[in-house]
Amino acid sequence: MWFKNLNLYRFTKPFALSPEELDAKLTEKPFTGCGSQDMVSLGWVSPLGQEDSPLVHAGNGCMMLCLQRQEKVLPGAVVNEFVQEKIAEIKEQEGRNVGRKEKTDIKEQMIFELLPRAFTRSRKLFAYIDTRQQLLIINSSSTKAAEEFIVTLRDTIDTVPVIPLKPHNDVSQCMTRWLSGSEGPTQFAIGGECELQDRSDTAAVVKCKNLDLQGSEIKSHIDNGMMVKKLELNWTGGIEFIADENLTIKRLRFDDLIMDQLQDVNTESAADQFDADFTLMTAEFEKFIPALVEAFGGPESGGQTREETVVASAEA
User: Fold this and answer.
1) Quick one: DSSP state of residue 214?
2) DSSP state, residue 160
3) 6-10, 26-30, 48-52, 103-107 — which is least confidently predicted?
4) Which residues are registered as beta bridge partners of 213?
5) What is the distance between the alpha carbons of residues 129 and 65, in angstroms, rounded to a whole number?
6) Cα–Cα–Cα angle for 15, 21, 23, nearest 5°?
7) In angstroms, rounded to a whole number, what is the distance separating the alpha carbons of residues 4 and 255?
8) Taking the alpha carbons of 21, 157, 73, 123 in that order, is the dihedral positive or negative?
9) For residue 163, which phi and psi values (nearest 5 degrees)?
10) Each residue of 169-179: pLDDT tens digit?
């Protein structure tokens, strides 16, 4: 349950549902497996992994949700093999070539026939709503997966007015400035891994690992026009991670000082352990996320952004 990645969003309007109200809405769209002709199935399951448990796990002013996704595994090579066999059969039996439109129709027919026999694979995506900071925090490094979570939640509860959490300053420019020799971020130490990209040629990428990132070699790349796109940072509160140019957090790791706090908690069941983990993790993130945003100049300031205007119009 401990989050390894963070996609961060902030609410443009206060999230007003109680845990009980949210649970009631999620119950209307529970997870069911793919039907014979379904490629993908999405639905809500209990974060605890128990069928009789609520679909919302609340604590510490936060509400944990879990979206399960199941999809059919139907490799293109398999479909193409059946399509080619069908085309060869038509040529042999009818003595004619198969046109482009007919090939498309044959492919659709093959998919229709193969879907009921296809294997399935499933994954669970955890996220929680922080009602005190008005944040939606999704345990994924993939923007696509995070957006699918948001769309599914919006379809379930009608409104999810969120936009990506953005700091006041450009993330890539800040990280580049830190490595170029300027003053580093408050409360954070620079690690030994980064990724640089040329400003004029996006195909030109330099990846560095286990290096002194504030040494002459890195500064030379920056002087030649490269920007930092990913950077390893260590928060003084006890979290190591990789931050990218969009402030997506990847490969997050809690140090022993944080994890050792669980040893003082007596738990008698898996549910108790989940609750203890959830409470400690959200308490750490409640300190970590504001510190992270502050390192990049604090929250985005000014009036309502264009994104917020669009969201507000869509939610009205």
Assistant:
1) T
2) -
3) 48-52
4) none
5) 8
6) 105
7) 13
8) negative
9) -135, 160
10) 999 999 999 99
Contact 196, 228 (CB under 8 A): yes
- Cα–Cα distance, 281 to 298 (Å, whole number): 22
Residue 261 DSSP code: G
8-state DSSP, 203: T
| Count helices and strands in the chain by DSSP H and E runs | 9, 12
Positive or negative: CA dihedral 303, 307, 308, 314: positive
Please enumerate in sequence order all residues whose Cβ is within 8 A of that of 120, keeping only pairs 6 or more positions apart, or say none.
Answer: 33, 34, 70, 71, 72, 73
User: Dihedral of the CA atoms 135, 139, 145, 146 (nearest 10)?
Assistant: 0
DSSP state of 262: G
Per-residue pLDDT tens digits for 206-216 = 999 988 888 88
Domain ranges in the chain? 7-74+118-164, 76-116, 171-299
Computed on alpha carbons and rounded to an integer, the radius of gyration of the chain in Å comes to 24
The amino acid at 285? F
Q: Which runs of consecutive H residues, i.e. helices, occur in the chain?
A: 19-27, 76-94, 100-114, 143-157, 171-179, 216-223, 256-259, 270-295, 306-315
Encode pLDDT of 48-83 as tens digits: 988 789 999 999 899 999 999 999 888 888 888 988
Distance CA 311, CA 91 (A): 55
Q: Do the beta carbons of residue 12 and residue 160 sit within 8 Å?
A: no
Give the H/E segment covering residue 246: none
Q: Which 3 state secondary structure label does DSSP give 63?
A: strand
Max Cα distance, the chain (Å) = 78
